[in-house]
Automatic annotation (TrEMBL):
One of its GO terms (cellular component) is plasma membrane. It comes from the Bacteria. InterPro entries: Diguanylate_Cyclase, DUF484, GAF-like_dom_sf, GGDEF_dom, Nucleotide_cyclase, Rev_trsase/Diguanyl_cyclase. Residues 236-376 form the GGDEF domain. It catalyses: 2 GTP = 3',3'-c-di-GMP + 2 diphosphate. This is diguanylate cyclase. Pfam families: DUF484, GGDEF.
Length: 379
């Protein structure tokens, strides 16, 4: 027969073990849950089809998945290439207040190793949040932000940015913590970022004219179909301008091919300066540009065309060879009338460009440096 004290000890021990097991089971379930959420987050970012889709997913999901109070991304963007290209592709950065662009590696805050023995890539920095040192990485830090992790984003051992995690919990990130998990997260995010950025750059190259930076003909053809379809749905007007530099051959002959290229770039810039953000400017080839004016009737298109003509003719073009050259443009304008639903969009698009081209022909015939609008009776 056992003594009563021994039985009591066993019961207590049993209860303690049971409580410990319940705790461990709860932890295991919680970890499993976190793992599943991270797995689904990984799948979502790997599947992101564009730059805004990727950064949007990171900013939306990561704070929830990792129970963080703030997540920011800093991208190393020497020469403003990434920011500039995304802007041209229509990314609205106001949608991403936690996205930071830095021009130099030093701004990311990773201290380069002073040890001659260790020259590896930077490691994550975990610890307390100090506004003076870290505010640039957290431009909209939540009140009471206490601890942070700055995780380097590396591709082929090259720093491309940092993933910055923040918590109001002072012990969420401490210098003594292991960094395997955040490094793993950083490496997946770095691959995804590099991937979408390269794809967006390729998309941009495929849609733009390398010399002037404006859209190319392929883009304009597609955009025209899109805009005419929209105009058909919303019953607004679409106008088109065909712009051709006058006697451009003479410009090339006098200023050389390089001087001619500079003139093409400057003409594109002067045209663009007169347009609304919603309008589209493309180079159709050689010295010809086409502008698509959204929600603009014939009269307002004529006014914009006249502004463009005047701005090109107003002042000579200063060239890098110290010479300057005076240039003018001729412009043909056409507007789609009531867009009946029975007409095919492709046919309407071709007709619009052909009418602007025909008006341009008249402008050239009429003496150049002028704007001519297509008249319906030209047929
Ligand atoms: N510099 C430069 N020249 C180009 C480029 N593409 C086409 N050209 C030149 O543009 C000129 C076009 O000449 P033309 O079509 O005869 O027309 P134009 O001299 O402008 O005369 P009009 O249009 O009748 O006023 C040619 O000399 C082409 O070589 C380019 O990318 N760069």
């Amino acid at each position: 027969m056992q003594e009563p004290g021994v039985t009591l000890d066993l019961v207590e021990e049993n209860a303690a073990l049971r409580a410990r097991m319940d705790y461990l089971l709860e932890q295991a379930e919680r970890n499993h849950d976190i793992m599943c959420r991270h797995h689904s987050f990984d799948l979502d970012i790997v599947g992101a089809g564009s730059f805004p889709d990727l950064v949007g997913t990171i900013f939306r999901q990561l704070p929830v998945v990792s129970e963080l109070d703030v997540v920011t991304l800093a991208l190393l963007d020497v020469g403003d290439d990434i920011h500039g290209t995304m802007h041209k592709l229509g990314v609205d950065f106001a949608d991403f207040p936690h996205l930071v662009f830095v021009q130099a590696e030093a701004e990311l805050g990773f201290v380069p190793s002073r040890s001659p023995l260790f020259t590896g890539p930077p490691k994550p920095l975990l610890g307390p949040y100090h506004p003076a040192a870290h505010q640039a990485m957290f431009p909209h830090a939540p009140a009471g932000l206490q601890s942070i992790a700055l995780v380097p984003l590396l591709r082929n051992k090259r720093l491309i940015g940092s993933l910055n995690l923040g918590s109001v919990d002072p012990v969420r990130f401490t210098p003594s913590m292991g960094t395997d998990f955040v490094e793993h997260m950083g490496s997946i995010i770095a691959i995804c970022l590099e991937n979408v950025i390269s794809n967006e750059m390729l998309k941009y190259i495929g849609l733009t004219d390398a010399l002037t930076g404006v859209y190319n003909r392929r883009y304009m053809d597609l955009r025209m179909l899109e805009e005419i379809a929209r105009a058909q749905r919303q019953s607004h007007r679409v106008s088109c301008m065909y712009i051709d530099i006058d006697h451009f051959k003479l410009v090339n002959d006098s200023a050389g091919h390089q001087g001619g290229d500079e003139v093409l770039r400057e003409v594109a810039a002067r045209i663009k300066a007169e347009l609304r953000l919603s309008d589209a400017l493309g180079r159709f080839g050689g010295e010809e540009f086409v502008v698509l004016l959204i929600d603009a009737d014939g009269d307002s298109a004529g006014v914009v065309a006249e502004r463009i003509r005047a701005s090109v003719a107003l002042s000579p073009f200063a060239l890098s060879c110290d010479a300057s050259v005076s240039v003018s443009v001729s412009i043909g304008v056409a507007t789609l009338g009531e867009i009946g639903r029975e007409r095919a969009i492709e046919a309407l698009s071709q007709e619009l460009v052909a009418q602007a081209d025909s008006a341009l022909y008249r402008a050239k015939e009429g003496g150049r440096n002028r704007v001519v609008s297509f008249a319906a009776d030209e047929g």
